[in-house]
Hints:
Layout: H1 7-14, E1 30-37, E2 42-45, E3 55-63, E4 70-77, E5 85-88, E6 105-114, E7 121-129, E8 134-138, E9 153-162
Antiparallel strand pairs: 1-2, 1-3, 4-5, 4-6, 7-8, 7-9
Amino acid sequence: MxxxxxxxxxxxxxxxxxxxxxxxxxxAKAVPLVRYxxxxxxxxxxxxxxxxxxxxxxxxxxxxxxxxxxxxxxxCLAGNATRDQFLTGAxxxxxxxxxxxxxxxxxRTEGYLFTSPGPNRRALYRCYVPHTQSHFVSLxxxxxSNPPTSKVNKEFVLGYFPx
Length: 163
């Protein structure tokens, strides 16, 4: 994803802020959603780097506040896997999906993504690597598993970010 998430995408998205428009009508500012990797586990956040061993792999712009047609994206820590941080649109961190599993912990609201495709929007996919129990996000619908070096599952489209 290093080459896929381009800093210029963030700069272009920052231009969506309503320059010259009244403050009440200005769109939300773009903030970077950054994917980190420490060699085993991924961590995706609009907050601070999770630790010194994590290196940045790329970033995409997400909105800093709710706009029409968007939903909140939450950063969560999986209750059943060590250091498995993931993103979701579910405020309960998907605890209602499997109530018998160890509870996931909500870490923060990361920002907002559009719920449907549209002009100047790109899909952001949530992906999962079962053998390392690590979630991450990707711009590629195959979750960057081509050629496959390990099994990577595309779970779903998390949302759409301004490009």
